Amino acid sequence: xxxxxxxxxxKYLKFGVGAAVLIGGLAVFAQxxxxxxxxxxxxxxxxQQYYVEPVDSKKLxxxxxxxxxxxxxxxxxxxxxxxxxxxxTETSGEFGGLGIxxxxxxxxxxxxxxxxxxPAWEAGIKPGDRVxxxxxxxxxxxxxxxxxxxxxxxxxxxxxxxVVREKEDEPRDIAIVRGSVKIRSVKPTDLGxxxxxxxxxxxxxxxxxxxxxxxxxxxxxxxxxxVKGIVMDLRRNPGGLLDQAIKxxxxxxxxxxxxxxIGRDPKQKEVVSATKKGKYTExxxxxxxxxxxxxxxxxxxxxxxxxxxxxxxxxxxxxxxSVQHVIKLGDGSxxxxxxxxxxxxxxxxxxxxxxxxxxxxxxxxAEAFGKAVVKSKGGNREKDIAGHLLGEKEKAAKIAExxxxxxxxxxxxxxxxxxxxxxxxxxxxxxxxxxxxASDYQVFQAYxxxxxxxxxxxxxx
Length: 461
Description:
Layout: H1 7-13, H2 23-50, H3 57-70, E1 77-79, H4 81-90, E2 94-97, E3 100-105, E4 108-114, H5 119-123, E5 130-134, E6 137-138, H6 144-151, E7 158-164, E8 172-177, E9 179-182, E10 186-192, E11 195-200, H7 207-222, E12 229-233, H8 242-251, E13 257-262, E14 269-273, E15 285-289, H9 296-306, E16 311-314, E17 322-328, E18 334-343, E19 359-360, H10 366-376, H11 392-401, H12 409-412, H13 414-417, H14 424-428, H15 432-439, H16 441-451
Parallel strand pairs: 11-12, 12-15, 15-16, 16-19
Antiparallel strand pairs: 1-18, 2-9, 3-4, 5-6, 5-7, 7-8, 10-11, 13-14, 13-18, 17-18
Helix pairs in contact: 7-8, 8-9, 15-16
């Protein structure tokens, strides 16, 4: 995760002037480091002079730096000038490229998540895809920055990713045209009756501001009745800026801690608490996460979960519990360095563990589930017997059939009584609200939980 401020780095890297007891140890360390650097310089000089072919000294130095950082965690990396320049623009929300978040998992280049509405998303890249080649070049043994450079190119140019997808035996080639990516990190949907859905796709510079704007609009629309509840969807959100995660958490908290970070020295603990200026602290919240919710997503989910402000639903999150600080170097290149682990308010470390949802809920394919439901139906009921007495609803239905059919609020609620019944063609014709509830089982269930909030305990209203 990229920290939005530079205050913390000084704390993590400085040592006290009065630490005289360490002088001896530091002197030994300095001598050992000097010896190692001498050896490195000698080896570099020997290679430059005697290697069988001419060598590029800059290329050798870059390889040495990458080799050193590869001994650390996969989120620590060196960024050459052109890569660092692109990195700086990505957090602003508009950049050129594919639009994917990647990591190295078990030595394999893996997609954490494609960013919604980007070239990679539209081309069909899926979370969990393992990228084994880029334009025919193997990704085996590559670090994150090397892989990123391999996938970079001019806008309008095409690249082909060869990916291995879960439960598929053969790799597939996916062609992607690099384009101008403008991220819309917050996508609202009005669910009606005072309920709202917010899809947060990433944490960039304007994410907190945009969510604040949409929340203000929701409150204004609700009027004196107030907002009844919201679903915050953080599934497939790979994370982003720490300050935006803090800002969003703060919006919904009356008080309490949001996140803490601990660096190399356990005594150097930084705690970020709510400002007690949260405007949206009264209504219930359900947060959706899955195995591709990472970093900043986990901070928000953990903060609201531990403060009993929200219920988390879905699957255990990704488990990226480390903080990276980005340092711009003198030549325009940059170093992304892991400086701390972060912890939720209750003291949980998320690193390699993730956020455990309060309610585990698997994602379901609506079409497949619909077929299963149809197959499981059997047996007759009273209404299926010829000549049966009509029920009150049947009488009303018969009368309604004789009149011009008009869609009523009851018709709309059919979605809430059986989302899997809708056919794909029907879904396309629906309103954004009905389309969302008809096609996404987890959102549908979160909406139901919100409407039944009074029977849920342990979460503030």
